[in-house]
Amino acid sequence: MTIKKHVKLGLSALALSVSLNAMAAEDPIKVGILHSLSGTMAISETVLKDTVEMLIEKQNAEGGVLGRQLEAVVVDPASDWPLFAEKARELLAKEKVDVIFGNWTSVSRKSVLPVVEELNGLLFYPVQYEGEESSENVFYTGAAPNQQAIPAVNYLMNEIGVERWVLAGTDYVYPRTTNKILETYLMDQGVAKDDIMINYTPFGHSDWQNIVSDIKRFGSAGKKTAVVSTINGDANVPFYRELGNQGISASDIPVVAFSVGEQELSGIDTGPLVGHLAAWNYFMSVDSDANYDFIDQWVAHTGDEEAVTNDPMEAHYIGFNMYIEAVKKAGTTDVDAVKDAIIGVSVPNLTGGYAAMMPNHHITKPVLIGEIQDNGQFSVVWETPSTVAGDAWSDFLPGSKDLIADWRKPMSCGTFNTKTGSCGASAGEMAAADE
Amino acid sequence: MGILRSLTLLLIALASALSLPATAQEDDPGTALLTNLAEAPNSKVEEALNAIVSSGDPRARGWLEAYGNNRLSQVKNTGQVVVVLNNRGRDWKIANPLTGENMGEMSRRELDRVAINNAIRGQLGGILAMLDLNAPDPDVREASAQDMMGKVDALLVEPLEARLELEESAKVRNRIEEALAIYRVGEGDLDAVEVLAGSLHPRARASLNVAVRGDDPALAAKAKQALSTIEQKLKLNRAAETLYFGLSLGSVLVLAAIGLAITFGVMGVINMAHGELIMLGAYTTWGMQQLLPGQPGLALILSIPAGFMVAATAGIIIERSVIQYLKGRPLETLLATFGISLILQQLVRTVISPQNRTVVTPEWMSGSLVINDALSLTLNRMYVLGFALVVFAALMLIMRRTRLGLEVRAVTQNRNMARSMGIRATRVDIMTFALGSGVAGLAGVALSQLTNVGPNLGQNYIIDSFMVVVFGGVGNLWGTLIAGLSLGTINQLLEPWAGAVLAKIIVLVFIILFIQKRPMGLFPQKGRAAEG
Lengths: 435, 532
Fold this sequence. Notes:
The complex is a heterodimer of chains A (435) and B (532). Chain A has 435 residues and is of the alpha/beta class. Chain A folds into 2 domains: 2-143 and 287-364, Response regulator (Rossmann fold, 3-Layer(aba) Sandwich), CATH 3.40.50.2300; 146-285 and 368-389, Response regulator (Rossmann fold, 3-Layer(aba) Sandwich). Helix content of chain A is 39%, strand content 18%. Chain A is built from 13 helices and 19 strands. Chain A has helices at 2-22, 42-61, 81-94, 106-118, 149-160, 173-188, 209-218, 236-245, 262-265, 289-302, 311-330, 335-342, 427-434, and strands spanning 29-34, 70-75, 99-102, 123-125, 138-140, 164-170, 196-201, 225-230, 255-257, 277-280, 346-348, 354-356, 364-365, 368-372, 378-383, 388-389, 403-406, 413-417, 422-423. In chain A, strands 7-6-8-9-10-14-15 form a 7-stranded mixed beta sheet, sandwiched between helices. Chain A has a 5-stranded parallel beta sheet with strand order 2-1-3-4-5, sandwiched between helices. Chain A is globular and about 70 Å long. Chain A starts with a helix and ends with a helix. Mean pLDDT of chain A is 89; it is low at 16-25. Among the domains of chain B are: 133-214; 238-358 and 371-458, no CATH class. Chain B has 532 residues and is an alpha+beta fold. The termini of chain B are far apart. Chain B has 23 helices and 7 strands. In chain B, α3 (29-39) packs antiparallel against α4 and α21 (477-498) crosses α22. Classes of the chains: A alpha/beta (435), B alpha+beta (532). At the A-B interface, α2, β7, α7, α8 and α10 of A face α6, α11, α12, α16 and α21 of B.
């Protein structure tokens, strides 16, 4: 495989030098890729690097954009949060990239924020996150809580009739903020405090015996119970395994997860999990031609017949195409021009619809609820009738209720308070202040 | 090329469909039944299912099972309903549901899955359970009666009562009575509460809880009384459960730490790559399962010696290439082995994959041993607990009863004197390190059944392992066993009360304080051995 890669590298280098000779005047557009290729997050982030590379290859085969080829600049921040900031600086200041696709965890995004704002870069962030942020230089192509958590809870409440809730999460910022939003939302809907159980576990937690047995007990109060899980990454595998072993089936206590995708399920025997739920904006099993073409392309790119696609990959697909459209629209790769041009740009997503960039730098997405199947895929059981626009500032948190973000001129503000009519600190300043 | 391939596949599928006698297809009532199910909107699915059940077709059960398992699909352009045999990848293997005949492969693009959701799956479970109630095997009947609990509705009461009359097995009778009582409590029947008073099943409690909140004061009072008797019984079960959880977590800690107890405890080498040796053992299990597809149990058993050998070999390489040159320089050993651990992790990421690998749990290790409705012990953890004890016993035997054990103890107590007695200290070093590493590999084989097999596996256990060895007393295997089991139990006792995060912190603080008081751990080495 490595030989193949070398050959590929050599070929692309050759192609590059040929094209350089042909049109030496036009430099390639540099696309920075800031995803961990080593360390704990490599499990999730390597596929995203491959996705962007694949998209670049495809765009180049179609003649690039504005007559210029695209060139990937890959760095490895090694799952190390401060290193993310350094690598972002390297990309922007030294490599002079035109755009960055990157980050997975919120903490890594927060560490990059001040750098991207200071050096006026462009960052496309592809992962569902806790919201409460809008930066002039960042485009959030993953879901905000109102595009994932709230619709999922609505589904459980209205379609399944759930009255008792377990909010289980990994102990860090995304689950804590999401659960705070959900708790407020549920209480607003008339759920009693006794009917909500909140539980946090450390990263990579592997001993779920006690917690699962607690959930089982909590669920025997005679009201329909569901677990809303913001458990992160591979801690899910032993969690689901324990659920199966303790005999909790999806028809007793369904678990709806916000961080379990095809990738996570590919490391587990899904037999006992059939029927548990996940809420995303894309599933690999979605029945649309755009999706099937994307999968074919991905399988060809990885050379692995079993390769899976997932939601953050779709987010990069959308983000990348939006960037290309915005560059075409602006007629240049100048950051400020692209920033203005991209608002309102609409490109096809993989579920058969369109995604549009909103003035708050979030995008519109359909919300899908899928049930786990025995082949490690999800089958869609419910979806929102139309796409939902991402809300940067949650309406269910006291501090953020009155805030809105709008990056169109003349407002150009990510933290506009509708009560006081003033603009607060920028996202980068807030992230820097937190440190 | 993709289009071409799916076209040929389509042609093959079409040809095979045509080659069937066309009349048989059309005359078969199954065709109509299945098409009806496939095309029913959500509200009509129940009707379609009932039509299939009441048709009395002997193939009905198979269809319903396929439907429940998400295995029914409709070919998009012919409307034919097919059973999907293998739904992995882009091309699915399909078969004819009427004849069971294999129809080859078809691209996923051409197939439309017959939708099912949890609500329908629940109803389907009830239907299948009802069919199973007449099975000849009493165990099947008991399981299906248990499935009926909480699913009984007005329509099912009569057939269930009829079944109760016929039923011979006392266990199955009890189950059916409980299932009926759950329904009757919901209807306000006071006598039914009595039946449920002795039941530990969560659904029985659920229905009593509903009754307590209900409008009928007499029923509520009685249900409350029944619940308090149940609660009494549950307390004992809960204590037993927590103890089991503790021992099981403890056994994992013992397994992870016992190899370290030899390399660190006996030899004094601070091996930060210990976790990665565990990881190698886990990957060996994965590799074995890849070599022996379809036989996960056999592969797991073969992995025990294989995991030991792989990790031991890795251990020998580490010892020969690095550790032997750093003898007596603990800080440098620590740094060097930490480097090795990073190298091994990244090696696995590059060579195998950064993604976690699937290790299949064999049939006989999944599920749980049901003691009663409130207490069931998960089997995989029980096997790991047993395995930990066996490994411990074997190690004790080696250290106490074999020549190698004797030499190891001699070399660690007084290296120079042992050498002057003719013991080859270098060889003993290699053997000891290999033994400790091999045992880490064994831990990996066991852990592959409990947690993720990925490049980070080792990192999650290295801190815990050192904690256990230090707490138990360096150089003492018994100390490691007791320390591991007690730390596991303390952790599980604290967890429901303090939460998983705080429980971990409390245990850590406790160990720090304990070490302040007794720097040598639980079971310090005594006498001359301690000074060596």
